[in-house]
Amino acid sequence: MSHIDHLGIAVKSLAAARKFYEQLGLQVMPEETVEAEKVRLAMVPVGESRLELLEPLSPDSTIAKFLEKRGEGLHHVALHVNDLAGTVERLKAAGTRLISDDIKIGAGGHLYVFIHPSSAGGVLLELVEDAPQGV
Ligand code: ZN
């Protein structure tokens, strides 16, 4: 565990969010689409961490449901880990509830898994490992 990889923020409009963060003097990276999660996202580097702006692609996406229930705001916290497979194994052995059993591959080839808020003090926690070298 080395640092907070990013904070995921649910937004209704990526364009509006981009404008706001650019006004703050931050650089917003080009948008990416993650079909598996039905979102469009843009990363905003802040030091060694990032903000992840998430806009739903369809009404049945997790982010769309979150926006409907809670409105715009902080959606998840992502911690950077060096050994995701080993960490997931330990968590499962300890009975931790994960959103999905399998490690997934996200934008840019990084690996990730979500821990259910019921196992993480009410926080939707994402664990992220860098893309394997050479990919
Ligand atoms: Zn994330």
Question: What does this protein structure show overall?
Answer:
There is one protein chain. With 135 residues, the chain is of the alpha+beta class. The chain has one domain: Roll (2,3-Dihydroxybiphenyl 1,2-Dioxygenase, domain 1), CATH 3.10.180. It contains three helices and eight strands. The radius of gyration is 15 Å and the shape is globular. Bound molecules: zinc ion (ZN). The site of zinc ion has 6 residues, from β1 and β5.
Outline the fold blueprint.
Elements: E1 4-10, H1 14-23, E2 32-34, E3 39-46, E4 49-56, H2 62-70, E5 73-80, H3 84-93, E6 104-105, E7 111-115, E8 125-129
Parallel strand pairs: 1-4, 5-8
Antiparallel strand pairs: 1-5, 2-3, 3-4, 6-7, 7-8
Give a summary of the structure in a few sentences.
The protein has helices at 14-23, 62-70, 84-93, and strands spanning 4-10, 32-34, 39-46, 49-56, 73-80, 104-105, 111-115, 125-129.
Note the main attributes of this structure:
alpha+beta, binds zinc ion, 3 helices, 2,3-Dihydroxybiphenyl 1,2-Dioxygenase, domain 1, eight-stranded mixed beta sheet, 135 residues
- Uncertain stretches of 5 or more adjacent residues: none
Number of helices: 3
**What is the makeup of the main sheet?**
8 strands, mixed
The count of domains is: 1
Identify every distinct bound molecule in the structure, by name, code or SMILES. zinc ion
First-to-last CA distance: 22 Å
Can you tell me the CATH superfamily? 2,3-Dihydroxybiphenyl 1,2-Dioxygenase, domain 1
Strand content: 25-35%
Strand order of the largest sheet: 2-3-4-1-5-8-7-6
Under CATH at level 1, the class stands as: Alpha Beta
Radius of gyration: 15 Å
CATH architecture: Roll
Q: How do the SSEs run, as a string of H and E?
A: EHEEEHEHEEE
Helical content class? 10-25%
The average pLDDT is: 93
Counted beta strands: 8
Based on Cα principal axes, name the global outline.
globular
- What class, by secondary structure content? alpha+beta
CATH fold annotation: 2,3-Dihydroxybiphenyl 1,2-Dioxygenase, domain 1
